[in-house]
Amino acid sequence: xxxxxxxxxxxxxxxxxxxxxxxxxxxxxxxxxxxxxxxxxxxxxxxxxxxxxxxxxxxxxxxxxxxxxxxxxxxxxxxxxxxxxxxxxxxxxxxxxxxxxxxxxxxxxxxxxxxxxxxxxxxxxxxxxxxxxxxxxxxxxxxxxxxxxxxxxxxxxxxxxxxxxxxxxxxxxxxxxxxxxxxxxxxxxxxxxxxxxxxxxxxxxxxxxxxxxxxxxxxxxxxxxxxxxxxxxxxxxxxxxxxxxxxxxxxxxxxxxxxxxxxxxxxxxxxxxxxxxxxxxxxxxxxxxxxxxxxxxxxxxxxxxxxxxxxxxxxxxxxxxx
Length: 322
Fold this sequence. Notes:
Elements: H1 3-16, H2 22-33, H3 39-51, H4 55-80, E1 84-85, E2 88-89, H5 91-95, H6 97-112, H7 122-146, H8 152-161, H9 163-177, H10 182-212, H11 218-221, H12 227-234, H13 241-252, H14 256-265, H15 268-288, H16 297-309
Antiparallel strand pairs: 1-2
């Protein structure tokens, strides 16, 4: 059985516990029925294959991360007022924001039931740090919506605390459960960070391009300071970021399509994609640089090729947050 199927079994087993609470179950089941790209789970499977690790021994921990991730998605949709998730109405749009908060909390409670795999070892401390890091990153993401002086360096730090931290923690967890030395676990975490950064930047690019093609962009509507936006602001050569933001808002007048065209015109997309490519190259280099005793050369070559071409770091735009 592959990682996706094993994790699905774990999640379905936990979801069954909610059947005694039909209202919570209906919302959680609705959200989880369309499980998106399963990127986290697929990356976990590929890393286990590369390490020669027992995927079955990792399934409970990976299921916990997947459930926690879905908890954050339900709450993110409320915060960002995004009405669509995985091609259907977001939970908050269907049931209301207050009920959606409870649905997210229910998934967090289910995740808590699977924490046994983290107890009694270094992972228990890592788990606490991961949860708080993601929440701190979300705080900064929200705060940036109101600021007009956000710097690219601040944006990258925020991304490291949110999406990238999830992949870093995933790989760190697999390394620890596989019994790797601390130095090798840290190398895996760094690899996860680069993968996560590249994925999130590509997702942010895709959000802008959706509006450029005539669709909607929650990021633009919410005044998100994503990397494409910040690069476009920088490329105006205004004296300050605040001055550039003023030009951006005045010239686009709140029109999502005009805003996307302005970002493209000021090379925000090009610069962001170049940064995503940089992190992809770093991820490939890190995978190739792992010790042969950790990842055999043949597996290393396969993993490096997947990073270069496969579903989670391809040249196109990937919807990581699905």
